[in-house]
Design goal:
This protein has 392 residues and is of the alpha/beta class. The chain is built from 11 helices and 16 strands. It folds into 2 domains: 268 residues, Aminopeptidase, CATH 3.40.630.10; 114 residues, Alpha-Beta Plaits (2-Layer Sandwich), CATH 3.30.70. The protein binds zinc ion (2 copies). One of its GO terms (molecular function) is hydrolase activity.
Length: 392
């Protein structure tokens, strides 16, 4: 088997759906038209539709034709676009100023719809498939909200699977790996409080700029000296605001940045380390420090057994030689992490190509590669027929 033939038959339909979604991008939690489109298609295919989870979320529920084994699976796609201006000029470019599908979620939604159509026509499996269309993947945590609002209580899933297109991987290839695949991403703000005064009389005050400079350098040791050289993490201070003039020492400095880590342990270590530095370093200079730390998406960590299944299915669809098991993890983040923290599962990358031409994720000239729609949909369909084989 490779691409499911029946899915290849409606490649043109999928391309049209993808272009429709691309033309009408909606950002986090505003996916009303997109979710109505998804719900309409699922109903058209004869799939039971549930709306309203996390606001604009949609779940389709489909039973196989075989004897019900009680087994269940969840397949997840994200639906949201990004708040950015598209620079493409082709016919299906965004019709909405300042909004664009630059991460390929239009393609993800379409591939899951394609699989839903095929599976509803064939029903050659036993058990229940939950098609999970989530809002707000891009930073706003729609996946988290779906889990919190009872996604897996209302729609039980023994395992849950996700997929993202990957421009650095050529079309026809898939990336599957066990363990961490995407990083946890937190952000923080720091305030260094000193005592301002005349720049010519530094001894009469406490200069928070000098303290902030020490802190920026010291924060780099959390990774370079705190982590084993073969582990990875990121502490980036990306914003420093202070001062109004060349001859005034300001009262305070405000800094902000992000922490990235591939495991919960390293994430915690970096947060603790930053807290400790902000608490203890400024007083050495007579200043005080305050840290506000915001937990973002946790690391996305693939479970071992579901990943073995995902790799076998990818090999069936793409050919074993086209499945990369040794792709390094990405330090980007993904809110599918919340689903993987709640249920066993695996998240794979689908080759998309085009990155050499600037078609990288979140680029204003990005466009999902329609050529890979049948492969992605076939992966979903084959996964269901593999995990939920038809029982007599
Ligand atoms: Zn994105
Ligand atoms: Zn994305």
């Amino acid at each position: 088997m490779a691409i499911q033939n029946r899915i290849a038959d409606f490649h043109a339909d999928m391309t049209a759906w993808r272009h429709h979604i691309h033309e009408n991008p909606e950002v986090a939690f505003e996916e009303t038209q997109t979710s109505a489109f998804v719900a309409g298609k699922l109903s058209e295919f004869g799939i039971e539709v549930h709306r309203g989870l996390a606001g604009t979320g949609v779940v389709g529920v489909l039973q196989g034709e075989g004897r019900d084994t009680g087994k269940t699976i969840g397949l997840r796609a994200d639906m949201d676009a990004l708040p950015m201006q598209e620079e493409n000029t082709f016919a299906h470019a965004s019709k909405v100023a300042g909004k664009m599908h630059a991460c390929g979620h239009d393609g993800h939604t379409t591939m899951l719809l394609g699989a839903a159509r095929y599976l509803a026509e064939t029903r050659n499996f036993s058990g229940t498939v939950n098609f999970i269309f989530q809002p707000a993947e891009e930073g706003a945590g729609g996946g988290k909200r779906m889990v919190e609002e009872g996604l897996f209580d209302r729609f039980p899933c023994d395992m849950v699977f996700g997929m993202h297109n990957w421009p650095e991987l050529p079309p026809g290839k898939m990336g599957v790996r066990s363990g961490p695949v995407m990083a946890g991403a937190d952000r923080f703000e720091i305030t260094i409080q000193g005592r301002g005064g005349h720049a010519a009389q530094p001894h009469l005050g406490v200069d928070p700029v000098v303290v902030a400079a020490q802190l920026v350098v010291a924060a780099q040791t959390l990774v370079s000296r705190g982590l084993s050289p073969v582990e990875c993490g990121v502490v980036s201070i990306t914003r420093i605001h202070a001062g109004t003039a060349f001859n005034i020492i300001p009262n305070e400095v405000k800094l902000a940045g992000t922490v990235r880590a591939l495991t919960p342990e390293i994430r915690q270590q970096l947060e603790d380390g930053l807290r400790n530095l902000v608490r203890t370093l400024p007083p050495v200079f007579g200043a005080t420090g305050e840290l506000v730390y915001h937990l973002g998406y946790p690391p996305t960590i693939n479970h071992a057994d579901p990943t073995v299944i995902a790799a076998a299915v990818a090999a069936k669809v793409a050919g074993a030689e086209n499945v990369l098991g040794d792709m390094g993890p990405s330090m980007g983040a993904e809110d599918f992490a919340y689903m993987l923290n709640a249920r066993p599962g695996s998240y794979v990358w689908l080759g998309q190509g085009g990155s050499a031409l600037g078609c990288s994720l979140h680029n204003p000239r990005y466009d999902f590669n329609d050529d890979v729609l049948p492969m992605g949909a076939s992966y979903w369909a084959t996964l269901v027929e593999t995990v939920l084989p038809r029982a007599a």
